[in-house]
């Protein structure tokens, strides 16, 4: 087990290094931010001073080297636009994104699992087929388009919910989040629902596929022949066995939600990391782009590691297979 | 469902009543300032925002007319010295008193902000600031400098006490954000909100609101929906195509005003082989834009009224020169050129291009109002007179770099460019100096002259104007230069002047500004 | 080949049992037809600048202009016919999606089959790379490419290919492994057939079924991803508007009441991606041994 973790960690590190190289070198080849940042009324000397100040005139290898050495000290560079440390900018916005992703996941699970199970248990009913068709629809609809429609309908037409931004923050057990206030919840609902739709579809399909497979298994037939009530069969035996693949998928789904939040944050003006990266790409704010990508890749790498370990703990078959190898 | 609605209404009611008690106003801004430090970045949104917390020596009102701010009077006492008398009895937000020391400190600091992407050195270079007494300053320059008051509207004065050793981060966190303006800084949560509160000791017109909350909402539709949904009370940068709809809303008030910004076209006038122009069959061709008849033809091919009516939804003014009427240095002999495609075709044939040619129009797609659409409309119009025009637009970061330096030897890369220019100083010397004067890097002239237009007579007029302190005489010189450079030479082709629209909830009215800025002092409550 | 279909007719009978999938397939064919023949089928050429007129801008669906041209779905802000724009946009979206899919399929199955064939260290390395890549959400991979190398049609294609190849590789390898255990492979080896020949003439054709399933779902995903990127302004350039870009352009018109500029391309995208997904979904069910 430990050798497994060690090997995976090494691989993760390699991925990080390669990724940072790709992004860093690539970003330097596309336009330079100077013309965008400098006031058009400035003269040539001013432009040159800015280039020098931001270190844009040094050779790329040197810039990369400074970057790496600083990164180990926790300094991921300073935003060209904001002048603040890139890491600080990202960390400031992280809670908002995590809130959004968590709430989305919650919505997706609450709706997704029951609907998926129903569709799996009674696959040929009208309701079930409707669920499946709608889930594919949900899967196929472009998130940004749905977001626009949601705003138009719920915020502008009906006026029930606010259309943009994040709500008031509340505290609970030392953690600050807008999920703890009603105002906050009203602001997060639409974007979270938008984000959740896409994931809900995959959770429904997965749950359904899993349910259908499990129902055909011997141990279910056995349980039924023992006279156990159908409800118990479903809630105890089927559910528990579905959870294994679903729980691991949920881990990855959470990561995916964080990545896809870039789109939702843009449509709903939600002040998270996703919006920051899109803006930074437009503005060629290189330090922020590189810092964000590094942080998020690190996050994913650890997320995957965690999920792998979790999976091997939960599924005894994997453990057995590993010891045999 | 009913229950949710009940709660939603209930809570909004609570919120609304809370609003009324504290006299708070919420503003939806298109562009969030990149920093609260007034000297960090000489950028529109940053400068506009700083005006609410800080003051400058000279103020610039909604028509870019000067008024006394921290300086009560100013005049040139000799050819190379200006004297500014400072206002007495002004208190900083932390209670200390404003003196000339603060000005000296400011000037020194503003030129030395670490990592500044674009600093205020432009406005302070070559000027020597001297303290005469606690409320008098002398500014000395080598040559006569008529635009001193204009430059003194730009730099915000900071406190020598609170600003001592302060970094940009200290301004962003509020630690050093002590100003003399009508509002005090409370907090900034980047991407989410900026909060200000009234300054009870302000020396000018009292602040109308106890509390102001700014919410950055970049996307036009999102900003509009926030206003319609009641999440904010006032928004800026209303996209022209939403104006008609908002006009129909009975509880929304619109204010619009023309700006100091002209949308114009720069054309490659210095290369015989222009990179994005070819003959109709794709073969090489002598750069047609070097012939004034071709440039004139192009200008006549533009249906400015159609652009204003259809692309800008009526929210723009057709342009005949570099600044609209009312600004200093504007010529009263120049009108927007008549739409005459037949004349255009004739001129093209005369110049030797009866079958036209192929050309790519380049433009930004996120800098000016409807910039990409304007470029597309122009392409359509040029196609009608035989110029096979195509359009390529890109984000401003990439566009401006390539437009200025993307070609070989850091020359301009494009042949035909859609651009805009806002005259920060409020007079025609600004666009003339930057766009039409011969490119001279060492003197800082022609810095944005991407077409490399060059005319000795025009240069002479501009330089003379820049050194003429007498306002009227300067105005006449500037008008003459415009008539030659634009009217005769077609050095640039003006298209339209931008008009900005702001929208607010009923009961609030915004005084539109020609400098396109959104400041809460301009929002009046009925 | 899983599913045990001996003849195409058997396959077809089973497939068409699900009415929804059948209709989706027909819709999909219609869309492909329109996309391929867009210049012939469209009422106008929306990108011919000499025929588009700004004075026709933002006309509602069903309007006609002075020369009698009828705009079934209205016009956009520059005066272009929406129906034609959607047809041309479908062409770009499908083209980009299909092309990136085919290239990704080729690359992916090459690596997948060869990994299964040669086994050992080669297989471990290839599959590790596949696993690592699959652990990242597609949008993140695309963002990395675009952030590093900029926007443009080539970079978007590269991003889409990169996002997809790993799925194909993994599927191809799984299938190939099953085939490797079969007798005909041993027979081929005894006959001293070359490795390349065995891999691509014998193994690969038998892996096609799952690859097709993955193919449909991945293509739908690629089209959707490209639309998202274009909407964010990070995808294809304006000169080659895909459906995503059309929706993005139409975004700003929603509030002024010109809903047709954004809604119709959105519906077109939905139908395209949805029909492909429905077909692929049904195919997957058909080929899943655990359900039979």
Major sheet characteristics of chain A: 2 strands, antiparallel
Kindly report the spatial arrangement of strands forming the biggest sheet of chain A.
1-2
| Strand residue content of chain C | under 5%
Count helical runs of chain C.
11
Helix content of chain A: over 70%
Strand sequence of the main sheet of chain C, in spatial order? 1-2
- Described by the principal axes of the CA atoms, the overall outline of chain A is globular
Number of strands of chain C: 2
Specify the overall morphology of chain C: elongated
Please work out how many helical segments of chain A DSSP would assign: 13
Please describe the biggest sheet of chain C, giving its number of strands, its sense, and whether it closes into a barrel: 2 strands, antiparallel
What's the gyration radius of chain A in Å?
24 Å
Describe the protein.
The complex is a heterotrimer of chains A (325), B (526) and C (292). With 325 residues, chain A is mainly α. Chain A is 77% helix and 2% strand. Chain A has helices at residues 2-29, 34-37, 44-53, 60-72, 86-121, 126-140, 143-157, 182-215, 218-225, 230-268, 273-283, 286-314, 316-324; strands at 170-172, 175-177. In chain A, a hairpin with a 2-residue loop joins strand 1 and strand 2. Chain A is globular. The model of chain A has no long low-confidence stretch (mean pLDDT 78). With 526 residues, chain B is α+β, with helices and mostly antiparallel strands. Chain B contains 16 helices and 22 strands. In chain B, the strands form five sheets. In chain B, strands 1, 10, 11, 12, 13, 14, 15, 16, 17, 18, 19 and 20 form a twelve-stranded mixed beta sheet that branches. A four-stranded antiparallel beta sheet of chain B has the order 5-6-8-7, with helices on one face. Chain B has helices at residues 2-22, 44-53, 100-110, 121-124, 148-151, 168-173, 220-228, 240-248, 292-301, 304-311, 341-350, 371-384, 396-405, 429-436, 456-466, 471-488, and strands at 24-29, 55-56, 58-60, 66-68, 71-78, 81-86, 128-133, 136-140, 156-157, 183-189, 193-198, 211-216, 234-235, 252-267, 277-278, 316-318, 358-364, 388-394, 416-422, 492-505, 508-510, 523-525. Chain C is mainly α and 292 residues long. Chain C contains eleven helices and two strands. Chain C has helices spanning 8-16, 19-36, 38-41, 82-118, 120-134, 138-149, 153-180, 183-190, 195-231, 243-251, 260-287, and strands at residues 63-64, 70-71. In chain C, strand 1 (63-64) and strand 2 form a beta hairpin. In chain C, helix 4 packs across helix 7 (153-180). Chain C is elongated, with a radius of gyration of 22 Å. The model of chain C has no long low-confidence stretch (mean pLDDT 83). Chains in contact: A-B, A-C, B-C.
